[in-house]
Predict the 3D structure of the following.
Amino acid sequence: MEIARLKQEITLDLTRGTAATIGNFDGVHKGHARLIERVLAKARAQNLASAVITFCPHPLQVLIGPHTPPFITIREQKLDLIEALGVDLTMMLDFNREMAALSPREFVQKYLVDWLNVKELVVGYDYTFGKGRQGNFAMLSELGREFGFNVERLDPVIINGAIVSSTRIRDLIKAGDVFAVRPLLGRFYVVRGNVVSGESRGRLLGFPTANLQLENEVTPKNGVYAVWAQLGDRMLPGVANIGYKPTFEGRQFSFEVHILDFGEDIYGQELRVHFVQFIRPEQKFSGPDELIARIKEDAALARRILESPEAQL
C-alpha cells in the first residue's frame, strides 16, 4: 500500500481513476471495513485504483485541541489495518485550519477531483464534510454529477442490535467491557507501546511485569485483564494490570503486563496487548502477601480464559 500526504508524493498511476472512501476511520471497525471492501469491489470491477482518504492529525485535534477524546487506533495501527484490507493508496491529508475553512465544493474539487481523479466514492450513512460540516450525501451527489464521479452511501452495520461506531466501541473499552468489543472490531482491542523501566516491584513479588509507554489510545478502566501479549510474531498469554497500585499508595498511572511462564529481558521492545476479558477491578490489599495470593489467582484465571475457544486469536 502506498501512503501519501501530498499530491506530488503519489506514484501510482491514477489516470484511469480511483474508487475511494473518506473518513477518520478510528478503530477501522466493521463499519469501516464494509466501506473499504465496497471500494475494493468497485475498483476491481472498473479497473480503478482503490484509495482511502483520511486525515492527520485527526480533525478534532485541530478543532478542539487537548480535549480530544483518546483514539481506538494510533496512526501506525490504523494504517496497518487499512493495508491489511488490500487498499492501493491511503491519502493522509494534512488537516489544518485552512482545510477546515474550505467549502464542500472547494474540498471536493481540490482533493477528490484534482488530486485523486475519483470516479467512484463510497461514504458512510452519516458522513459530512467541508466548512461547518455543510456537506452531506445530497451535496456530494450533486458535486459528483458536476465533476463526473458516482457517490454511493452505505447503511450502517448493525451488530447485537446497535450501530457499530467508534463512539460505541470507545465507550465499551472505557467501561472495561473489552470482550464485547471483539465482534465490533473483528478482533480483540489492541494497544501497543515500548517496554520501559518501572519500579521493579512485580519482580520483587515474583511476578515480573513489562511496563508500557502508551500514546493517546483509549485505556480500559482500571483493573486486571486476561490478555495476549504479542512480541514480534509470538502470542504469549498474560495478565495486564491498569491503574495506580493502591496497595502501595501509588500515585502514578501504570500499565503493566505479566507474561505467563516468561523470563526474557524485553526492555525497549514493542509489545502489543490484545485485551480478551476483564477479570476484576483494581483494589487495595492489606499487604504484599495478600496481593501475591490474589495475583496467583488472577494468573490462573487468565490462563483458563485464554485456553478457551472464545479467546483464540
